[in-house]
Amino acid sequence: MAASFDKKVVFITGGGSGIGRATALAFGAAGAAVILADRDEAAGNATASLLEERSVPNCFVPVNVADSDSVGSAVQEGIARVGQIDIAFNNAGTGGLEHPLHQYPEDNWTQVLAVNLSGVFYCMKHQLAHMLPRKSGIIINMASVAGLRGFPWHAAYAASKHGVVGLTKTAAHEYARAGIRINAICPGFTETPMVGRMVADDPGRRAKLEKAIPLGRLASPEEIANAVLFLASADNQFMIGHTLTLDGGITSV
User: Fold this and answer.
1) What is the pLDDT of residues 150-191, one digit of tens each?
2) CA 230 to CA 141: how far, in whole Å?
3) CA-CA distances (angstroms) from residue 252 to 104, 149, 249?
4) Is the distance from CB of 41 to CB of 68 less than 8 angstroms?
5) Residue among 41, 230, 249 nearest 145 (CA)
6) How far apart (Å, rounded) are the C-alpha atoms in residues 131 and 181?
7) Cβ(63)–Cβ(33) under 8 Å?
8) Three-state DSSP class for residue 65
9) Which residues belong to the active site?
10) Cα gap 234→191, rounded to integer Å
11) Pairing state of beta strands 87-90 and 58-62?
12) Gap between the Cα atoms of 174 and 169, Å rounded
């Protein structure tokens, strides 16, 4: 039986496109109200329109996850407009540049860590402050298969995603007895705008990526969204501090 999220409110960063949009639509179809948070207002409003077409209660709040004050304001505005946050999916991220480590630009290193790692920290900090008095809540952080193994020429991305895995495990331990479940999801290459930009300038790169995946294809955003709903399901009460891997078999070899 499909999970139901009736009367639940989901807060999603990076909800304007890709996995964030697919997850917003999946939660909406399962009965949840959705708070969409994104730096790109046009993309966020486009997802909001898709939810409205489906009669899903929602609101869009602008956010820069690399700034704690912006995150705090987005959380508070979302709560004021929708009423609460039961589930948070900290999905916003950036890919960064592709360079060998000794040539990696320091400004891009700082930017990637600020969005992918500090952004998750800021989101959890403000979400937990709301969830703790209620003694309930679910947080799912976007990590990556690059947080489980090396990712050559992407030092900043790999470091940030390894950091998300460690941060998730630590927070899960700290807040388990407070009634808050925290897990991470680790997708492999997925049909998202980020991966689209990776392959845009190299027609042969997509084929190389698919060849490296035992399943022989990229994941769809909807497949990742379904896994997020599994992690958030009321039938999944005993899983905390887990990194759920959806990589088409990359880490199996």
Assistant:
1) 999 999 999 999 999 999 999 999 999 999 999 999 999 888
2) 13
3) 29, 11, 5
4) no
5) 249
6) 11
7) no
8) coil
9) 157
10) 28
11) unpaired
12) 9
